[in-house]
Amino acid sequence: MSTERVELSAPEMDCSSCAGKVHSAIEGVDGVVEIETRPTAGVVVVEYDGDAVDVGALVSSIEAAGYEVTDTEGRLTEGTAVWRSDRAYATYAGAVALLVGAIVSVGPVPDPLVVDVLRETTLSDVLYVLAAAVAGVPVVRAGYRSAKLRELDIDLLMGVAILAALGVGYYVEAATLAVLFSLAELLEAHAMDRTRESMRELLALSPDTATVKRGDSEETIPAANVEVGDVVVVRPGERVPVDGEVVSGESAVDESPITGESVPVDKGEGDEVYAGSVVEGGYLEVLATAAGDETTLARVIDLVEEAESRQTDAERFVDRFSGYYTPVIVAGALATVFIPPLFFAGDWGTWFVRGLTLLVVACPCAFVISTPVTVVSGLTSAARNGVLVKGGDHLERMGEVDTVAFDKTGTLTSGELSVTDVVPAADRDADEVLRIAAALERYSEHPIGKAIVDRAEDDGVEVPEATGFENLTGRGVRGDIETTYYVGKPALFEELGHDLGHAHVRTDGGASVAERADPDCDRPGCVDLRGDTIADLQSAGKTVVIVGTDEELLGVVAVADTIRPEAEGVVATLETAGVRTVMLTGDNERTARAVGESVGIDEVHADLLPEEKLDRIERLTETDTVAMVGDGVNDAPALARADVGIAMGAAGTDTALETADIALMADDLDGVPYCLRLARQANGVIKQNILASLAVKAVLAAGAPLGYVTVIVAVVVGDMGMSLAVTGNALRLGRVEPEE
User: Fold this and answer.
1) Pairing mode of beta strands 580-584, 603-605
2) 8-17, 124-133, 332-341: which range is least confident on average?
3) Is 403 exposed, middle or buried (0-12, 13-18, 19+ CB in 10 A)?
4) Which value, in Å, is the radius of gyration of the alpha carbons in the chain?
5) For 538-594, what is the HEC assignment?
6) DSSP string covering 370-407, please?
7) Residue 347: which region, alpha, beta or left (left: phi > 0; alpha: psi -120 to 50)?
């Protein structure tokens, strides 16, 4: 089987009942493997056997269900002209006929008899029937399609209700129902279009064209056609069309569309830029490092669109509840129509109208859309502010977080490590220590190793080639340079059998270490490596790396990192919000404690190997809902195990985008409290929408059989009014902004 995937845009598919019909229609096509409907985006994703069915057959099945397919690449279309559509004009005509009919029936001039066959039919009756026919035909047609697909949805219910009312001569009710329901459908389409507007704003960030240098000339091509290696010209005020590296020019660049950072960043030769960012005042030539359709912005948009299909617990509850709610109310409507007249001598006309009203109440539209519109609003609001949330379920979970665990290096600290001290052992010199350390560490991907290699290059130290490199996970590295050397944590050398308490180092050479004599040292100028040198360095918040063999120590290298300026404020904000903060790091206890005290974290777990960090997360999740904040690479197992994994500085980093549940595009911790606040507000809006929808439906369902609720009230309040209310409430999330 040749499995293929296609994304079909069907913008008129804007509610759960629409999605149900589309799903049922495609499900009946041979060769379809999997179907995913995204009504909030108006997109259907289909996996199918390319040998058994083609895209044309899939498009035909969707259009047979009543939904036009406008695109076969899943692109979000421009906003629809809801109020200038054929459906809108039919509704307007129906409304005019209904209004004129009402005026004729209650006006000072007698309502003339038009025909008297089976019953008296007046001019107002004709106008009511005309209103029902003009405004009701789209409803009845949609209901017919639902019946063919065996979907008990609002279109089928309303279509049956209109036909039944016409059939028994209740022309006013039929006309009122057709016009008001059509108007409600238009308002819901308008509300959904407003929801989709936030996604269109993301799409608008990426320019359609790019100016590419071709020798001495320039050529304008579609941005999606830019290839890796092309040189793109970007002038003042233009958006960068691709991810790339500046090869010529200088300018301040507004990266807020990608990272959420409001302050423009100065860019020059060698700097990285992202598609969608704006060149403010200069001229740049950018070497494309990603194809036009594979940029960071393109991946963000794709992930946000996919995230809409991930259901929250609230959405799953709503789906289950509505599956029982609609059949029960329909049964109640039928019982209201037949039981009182048959068993209690009730008036058929009175109870028919009450049953009809209850049938209208059976529509769960507002209840069903209450959660997805909130999720879409939250996801797109976060994306506009540089936070990629990869699913409504992750947004919901983030709102429940009560513990945040931070990695140290690159998370609470900037990750820009540098060597501060090189302390050689007796009879050794600093260059020799750096030479051996850099030879081994240049094969390592750890930031500490990079800092050591950079220091050796800066000092002009000649670094030899090492062989037999081995990464000793969580402890250090090993390699051969004539003999086998080790570079790593003090614990590694204790494993090798070194008694660090009696190791000797020189105190001259400018090393910033307190000169304290070791009473057990019989050499002048020696200090206790464990008791003094390492302790002093670690107390100063530095990370200590020892260089040596399994028999001899060459010396100590100290590396320091700067604490992020926003870290203390972020921790304080989380604590104020009632969130417990924890630090998990592989660094030593003294250094970790020093950083913890600086940022305000009291609970610090240090000297953790990757598996021990994972174990700590598992222990925390036993009692708390835990978010883990890390760099998305070294912390991948812990990020995956936490209830919510948050990766820092994800712009342009495929690994972070793939491993994390939430990716902070900017290398900035302020996204963590913002995301918590947004998620908590989103959860609150979801609860408000669900409870309000249920409460209104319950009141209407109770009042309809008793005659307290009319058809007009049922449609205007229960359907149209609540749909607009929950959508408007959800759109409030778009105003949630990161705090300065």
Assistant:
1) parallel
2) 8-17
3) buried
4) 34
5) HHCCCEEEEEECCCCEEEEEEEECCECCCHHHHHHHHHHCCCEEEEECCCCHHHHHH
6) HHHHHHHHHHHHHHHTTEEE--HHHHHHHTT--EEEE-
7) beta
| Other Cβ atoms within 10 Å of 740 Cβ, number | 5
Q: pLDDT tens digits, residue range 476-503? A: 899 999 899 999 988 888 888 887 765 5
What is the spatial distance between Cα 379 and Cα 262, in angstroms, rounded to a whole number?
19
CB 374 within 8 A of CB 689: yes
* Token pair listed for 429: 């010199």
Taking residue 235's Cβ as centre, other Cβ atoms within 10 Å add up to: 12
CA angle 400, 406, 407 (to 5 degrees): 145
Provide the 10 A C-beta neighbour count for residue 483: 9
Question: How many residues make up the chain in this entry?
Answer: 740
What is the helix (H) or strand (E) element at residue 543, kind and residue range? Answer: strand 543-548
For residue 336, what is the enclosing H or E element? Answer: helix 313-344
Q: How far apart are the first and last CA of the chain?
A: 54
For residues 669 and 647, give the distance between their C-alpha atoms in angstroms, rounded to a whole number: 10
d(CA 394, CA 406): 18
Query: What are the catalytic residues?
Result: 407
Provide the token pair at 395.
């947004």
CB 303 within 8 A of CB 309: no
| Cα–Cα distance measured from residue 694 to residue 682, given in angstroms and rounded to the nearest whole number | 18
Range 477-480 contact pairs with CB under 8 angstroms and sequence separation of 24 or more: 477/440, 477/441, 477/443, 477/444, 477/449, 478/440, 479/439, 479/440, 479/443
Number of H helices, E strands in the chain: 24, 28
Quick check: pTM over 0.70? no
